[in-house]
Amino acid sequence: xxxxxxxxxxxxxxxxxxxxxxxxxxxxxxxxxxxxxxxxxxxxxxxxxxxxxxxxxxxxxxxxxxxxxxxxxxxxxxxxxxxxxxxxxxxxxxxxxxxxxxxxxxxxxxxxxxxxxxxxxxxxxxxxxxxxxxxxxxxxxxxxxxxxxxxxxxxxxxxxxxxxxxxxxxxxxxxxxxxxxxxxxxxxxxxxxxxxxx
Length: 198
Known about the structure:
By secondary structure, the chain is an alpha/beta fold. It has one domain (3-187): NAD(P)-binding Rossmann-like Domain (Rossmann fold, 3-Layer(aba) Sandwich), CATH 3.40.50. Helices cover 36% and strands 20% of the residues. The chain is built from 9 helices and 9 strands. It has helices spanning 11-22, 36-42, 53-61, 64-67, 97-104, 119-122, 141-153, 170-175, 180-187; strands spanning 3-7, 26-30, 46-49, 71-74, 79-81, 87-90, 109-112, 134-138, 161-165. The chain has a 7-stranded mixed β-sheet with strand order 2-1-3-4-7-8-9, sandwiched between helices.
């Protein structure tokens, strides 16, 4: 079992923290108190970024030293929101938040995953009427294997997980956030995920 620090205590962070703790992992959730994130990261093997994507790069770059040598799981989407508060454009067009994080944190192993679904599906993938897909993007195969194991602990079947390759592939899955406002307007705020049918 792993020791994890979750950065962000909103619906995503708290939901993943609860599910991983239930699976037997040691989990701490860092709030916004001064020093809380660095303290939590220092005691962890794996860090999960569930902070709002628009501010993640600045926030995590400032934590570069405690993040050195860690696996950083990034589930956030960096977007510019429209008047209704829903994503309207990508903050890093032609790139991705995950790529920006890996460039800023070269001694941290960044893995992108779980950002192509409504937050509730992250920890209950079997709740949908058809199998969803969780994508993995990252430079380090060993880190991706560890993250795949954590996904299994969240209920993801092996065949539902697709390793896309290097961190540059994160720009494709991050662009999928642009589907979300249209899906919500069309079908309402109900659980959904991207699924690759084979």
